[in-house]
Automatic annotation (TrEMBL), chains A, B:
Belongs to the aspartate/glutamate racemases family. Keywords: Isomerase. InterPro entries: Asp/Glu/hydantoin_racemase (IPR015942), Asp/Glu_race (IPR001920), Asp/Glu_racemase_AS_1 (IPR018187), Asp_race (IPR004380). It is an enzyme of class 5 (isomerase). This is Amino acid racemase. Coiled coil: none annotated. GO terms for molecular function: amino-acid racemase activity. The lineage of its organism: Bacteria, Pseudomonadati, Pseudomonadota, Betaproteobacteria, Burkholderiales. Its EC number is 5.1.1.-. Pfam families: Asp_Glu_race. It comes from Paenacidovorax monticola.
C-alpha cells in the first residue's frame, strides 16, 4: 500500500512470452512465470510487491499448427515460421531482452528465431528441462509429446546430450496423445484428454519402468495434474517459467543500451 | 491437427489486457478470457482451435499503487496515470481495438484512458458488473474492495445508476481487506488473505443480510474461491473477461481501417 518509491536495485529485465499455441497454455505459462518471480524475489530478499515484478508481455497470436507444418515441408501459409517471426519482432519492439516460447513443438523454429533476433535471448525449453534432470541425476524419462515434437527429435536430442535415456510411446499411443491434445484440451474436453494421457503414462511405466515422464506439450499439464500410480510428472512450462524469472532478475545484466549492442 | 485454412468468417478483433496490478490477477484474467472465448465460439458455432482465438496481448507493466495515489492527489512519480497511458499507447500500437483493465481500482483512470484513446473501446468493469446484476434482478450487494475503490466510488456510482443497493464494510473491516490484499495476495500469503476476506464477507452478510458480494479487487478471487455460508460471490474479472470475448467476436464490426476513423 506504500507509494511507489524508486528501487535501489536495477529494475528487472523486460521479458516476453510467445504464446497462443494454444491460448490456455499461454495463460497458464504467465501464471507459472508470476509464481516463479515471487519465489525468485523471496530467494533474493526483494520485498514482494506489484512494482517489483519484471515488465512482461504475453503475445497470444494465431500461429498455424506446428505438427501439421512439420509433416508438410512445403512453403505456404500453413508454415508457422513467418507469423512466429512477426510476433517476435513486436515483442522485441516492446523492449524484451529475454523471450520464452510457450509451446514445445514450436521449438522446432527456435534456431530461426534466435538467429533473426540475436539481441534477444530466446530460451530453449528442452535444454532447460534436460539440464535440470541431469543435475538431479535422473537416468531415464518417458516422453509425452505431439507427433511434431517426436518427429523433430526436440527432446530426444537434448536428453541424449545430457546422457538421459528417453523412452517413447508406440504409434497407437501417439495417436491417443494427439487425440488428448487436439480433441481434448484444445477443444475444451479435459476429461477425455486426461483419460488418454493417463493411459499412455501407465503404458510407458509398465513397459519401460521409468519413474518420471516429461509432459512435452504445453497442453498436457492442463489436463494431467498428477501422475497415475505415483509416476513423477515433469512440467517443462514450470521449468521454462523459472528460467525466464531467473533471467529477469539476473544481476550481471549490462546497462540496457550496451545490452542491445551485444551479440551472442 | 488439420493445417490452418483461411477462415470464412472475419477474424476476431485484436484485443488488449492492461495488467500488472497485480501480476497474478493479470495472469488469471487471461485464463478467464481464454475460457470466455471458448464459450463464445461454442455459442457461435465456431470450431474451437488455437487459430480461432482472437489475437490478444497482455501488458504486465509496473504501475504505481492505485489506492496510494488516490489518497495523495499531488502530481508525481507515485501517480499511475502516465504509466497507464504509456502502456495503453503500446497496446494501441499492437493493433488492439478493445481493451480491458485487469484492476478495479485503476478504473479511477478509465475516463483519462478512454479520452486519450478514442479509437479504442476501453471496457468499464463496474458498468459490466452492474448491468449484469440489474439484468438478473439482484436488489442489493455487499462490496469487497480496496480503500481506493471505495473512496473513488467506482462501484457505488454504477450500482446506484442501475438501482442496486450497495452495502459497505466498516473502517475496521476495510483494514482487514487491505491487509488481505497487500500482506496476503500481493505478498503471496493466500491463507492470510482468505481468512480476512471471509471474516468481512460474514460480517456484511450478518449485518445487512445481502445474499451476494462483489469481489471488487482482482486480488480477492485469487484467495476466495467460494463464499462462506453460501454467500454468492460475483467475480468482476470473469464478467469483464466475458465482455472482452463478446467484443472480440462481435459480428457488427466495421472493416479495421474504417473502424480506426470512427470516434465514439
Amino acid at each position: 500500500m506504500e507509494a511507489a518509491t524508486p528501487l535501489h536495485a536495477p529494475a528487472p529485465r523486460v521479458v516476453g512470452i510467445l504464446g497462443g499455441m494454444g491460448p490456455a497454455a499461454g495463460a497458464d505459462f504467465v501464471r507459472l512465470f508470476v509464481q516463479a518471480c515471487t519465489a525468485r524475489m523471496e530467494a533474493l530478499g526483494i520485498p514482494v510487491r506489484d512494482q517489483a515484478y519484471p515488465e512482461h508481455w504475453l503475445a497470444q497470436v494465431p500461429i498455424p499448427d506446428r505438427t501439421a507444418a512439420l509433416g508438410d515441408a512445403r512453403a505456404g501459409a500453413h508454415q508457422p515460421g513467418e507469423p512466429l517471426l512477426q510476433a517476435m519482432g513486436r515483442i522485441a519492439a516492446l523492449g524484451a531482452r529475454t523471450v520464452a516460447i510457450a509451446c514445445n513443438t514450436a521449438h522446432a523454429w527456435h534456431g530461426l528465431l534466435q538467429q533473426r533476433f540475436p539481441q534477444i535471448e530466446v530460451l530453449h525449453g528442452m535444454r532447460e528441462v534436460s539440464a535440470g534432470l541431469a543435475a538431479r541425476g535422473v537416468p531415464a524419462v518417458g516422453l509425452l509429446a505431439t507427433r511434431g515434437a517426436y518427429a523433430a527429435g526436440l527432446y530426444q536430442r537434448e536428453l541424449a546430450l545430457h546422457g538421459i535415456l528417453c523412452v517413447l510411446p508406440t504409434e497407437a499411443e501417439r495417436d491417443l496423445l494427439m487425440r488428448g491434445i487436439y480433441d481434448g484440451v484444445k477443444a475444451g474436453d479435459y476429461a477425455l484428454a486426461r483419460r488418454h494421457f493417463e493411459a499412455v503414462a501407465r503404458a510407458l511405466r509398465e513397459r519401460h519402468g521409468v519413474g518420471a515422464l516429461v509432459m512435452g506439450c504445453t497442453e498436457i499439464p492442463l489436463a494431467l495434474d498428477a501422475g497415475p500410480d505415483g509416476i513423477e510428472l515433469v512440467n517443462p512450462s514450470a521449468v521454462l517459467a523459472e528460467a525466464l524469472a531467473r533471467h529477469a532478475y539476473a544481476r550481471d545484466q549490462p546497462p540496457q543500451s550496451a545490452g542491445l549492442l551485444t551479440m551472442r
